[in-house]
Design a protein that fits this description.
Helix content is 77%, strand content 4%. By secondary structure, the protein is mainly alpha-helical.
């Protein structure tokens, strides 16, 4: 928009200048090396304008000549990146649909067009492709690699948890879930898995780590750190109450069944 406005203002200025010279005719004489050159002001202005235009064209041509390799590389790099993201998108859709052949093909194409250290979704696609193809060792290696990267840590822990649960390694699954719950307590799957384990074993001592070290003195525990501590305390208390309520419900149901079974036993004895 600014370039168009500048172009219009330039044309108007040139038109006003030539009109002003046309209304005020005159002549210009130049004596150079014994030769006298005479011309009108309109011709002199036209020659000056042509010289300026020629110099501008030469500057543009030289600048384009020196910057064209970079522009060409940038164009092909952008085109390659677009093709890579297209392959990545197609591969993720295929992996979600269970199309192992297409997901594997798109995974190889995306890795050839994009750099895995700059685009973590390539690891996600490769891990999902390995899962649906049954290459679980490769999938665990990729999930571990994602867990080591802060950007994909939560996704990597989720994949490791699912794989450990699938293999029946419940202790390893618990450790992955607790690690995820400690670093990201807002993850529902990590909180649920940790809560189920605590309910099963009845161990609440180290749940909400940091809350069993004693109440902070007055004036402390304020701010974000104190809020996290209070949040973990509430989670611990809520989890214990949930498990206690679940056990009480199971006990009441068992007592009801035994109470209903007593008359039947008396009738049988009679």
């Amino acid at each position: 928009m600014l370039r168009i406005l500048f172009f219009i203002l330039t044309i108007l200025t040139l038109g006003f200048g030539f009109a002003w010279l046309a209304d005020r005719p005159g002549s210009l004489s130049i004596l150079w090396q014994g030769q006298l050159i005479e011309m009108s002001l309109m011709v002199a202005a036209s020659i000056l304008l042509a010289i300026v235009a020629v110099f501008m064209f030469i500057w543009w041509f030289v600048r384009t000549l020196f910057t064209s390799p970079h522009s060409v590389r940038r164009y092909f790099r952008a085109r390659t990146r677009d093709r890579g993201y297209q392959a990545l998108s197609t591969g993720l859709i295929a992996a979600g649909a269970g199309n192992a052949a297409l997901a594997h093909k798109m995974s190889a194409r995306a890795r050839g067009l994009l750099r895995a250290d700059q685009e973590p979704l390539i690891l996600v696609l490769e891990a999902q492709t390995a899962v649906i193809e049954g290459r679980h060792d490769e999938a665990r290696r990729l999930f571990q690699q994602m867990a080591d990267d802060p950007e994909t840590r939560e996704l990597g822990l989720r994949g490791l948890y699912v794989e450990a649960d699938r293999l029946g390694a419940y202790e390893a699954a618990r450790q992955y879930a607790e690690t995820a719950a400690e670093s990201a307590p807002y993850l529902p799957w990590a909180a649920k898995a940790t809560l189920e384990y605590r309910c099963r074993v009845g161990n609440w001592d180290d749940f909400g780590r940091g809350t069993s070290e004693g109440r902070p003195p007055d004036g402390e525990g304020r701010g974000p750190a104190g809020e996290r501590t209070r949040s973990r305390s509430r989670q611990r208390a809520a989890g214990a109450e949930t498990c206690q309520g679940s056990r009480s419900g199971r006990d009441r149901r068992g007592q009801g069944l035994s109470a209903r079974g007593q008359p039947a036993q008396g009738l049988q004895r009679a």
